[in-house]
Amino acid sequence: MPPKKKEEKKKDAKEETKNEVEEERELVEKELVIGYLRSKLNRYQEHGDRLQVDVLKLTDDLETQKLNLRDINEFLTNELKARSLTTSALEAKVAELNNLLEEIRKSHEAALAKLRGDKDKDIERLEAIVREHERKARITQDFLDRKEAMETELQNLKDTLARKTKDFEQQMT
């Protein structure tokens, strides 16, 4: 049986060699996996570091934007207050001018009504004067017409008298 022992030893040595090779292979695989995981971890850490830097930059940008927005908001609030005051003053001025305009309109309407009344009275007075002048003109025209008729009649009578006087003188001679 001694040869068996050698064979067994060989088998054991082979198995041991196989086991060692397998262990070594497993160890290499584990080292590869560990190396891969370490490189992956390094990439993630680098990515995390970049993200932290980006977060810091974004936080700074956010704070800057907040400050800018606060300044803008303050400016616009002040501008709104100023414009509100200006608008209120202008609205008060508009109301005052509207009241003044209404008062002026009423006074002008009253003055216009008075002028119209005065004008109507003047027109009536002048129309009465015109009617009186027209009446006097008709009377004068009637008088002139009668005067002309009377003068014509007088002339006719004078002519008749002169003829009759001539006829009478001729008869007497």
Automatic annotation (TrEMBL):
It is found in: Cell projection, Cilium. Residues 1-20 have a biased composition (Basic and acidic residues). InterPro entries: CFAP157. Residues 87-167 form a coiled coil. Keywords: Cell projection, Cilium, Coiled coil. Belongs to the CFAP157 family. This is Cilia- and flagella-associated protein 157. It comes from Volvox africanus.
